Amino acid sequence: MSAQLSSNLGLRLGRASKYVASSPLDQTFKRAAGMTVKEAERRAAVAQENHAIARQLTRPWKAGDVYAPHDLSGAEARKWRVKHRPTTDAFDALSVNPLSLYKNFSVMSEYVTEMGRIRHSNSTGLRAVNQRKIAKAIRRAIALGLMPSIHKHPEIIKEEMQGRMLNTGRVR
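Predicted structure:
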């Protein structure tokens, strides 16, 4: 199946015809002009399929762009996907100071990765001021021992280490 870019529709598949009906009125007019009902339904289905494919493509294709079949794959589309960050700052919405929540492990753990790194503001959606405050609160909780320096509980890590040592034959 060949693919072709058109300036008005985006991506048009090779099996799609030149005359894709865009509205019910156009479909009725073309049906009256000698097109059978089956042909009109087929063209409408192709137009709907083309529209669905064009919606999935996140790269801004232009007429005349040269591309390989890999460019239409899901892996390539993920590279061009726009990452949406949260639009509202949770702490501003609740009018809460993040520094006062350093004792609350459940809140702090939302802003820490599994490896213990503080999440970037792109993924948290916090303003710069609140991002700095939540980072300070996390560091404070870790320093006081209220929160582990990595997300996994130390007992779980200990069990995993013992299991690894048993598998390798080294037991202490």
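Summary: Residues 3-80 form one domain.
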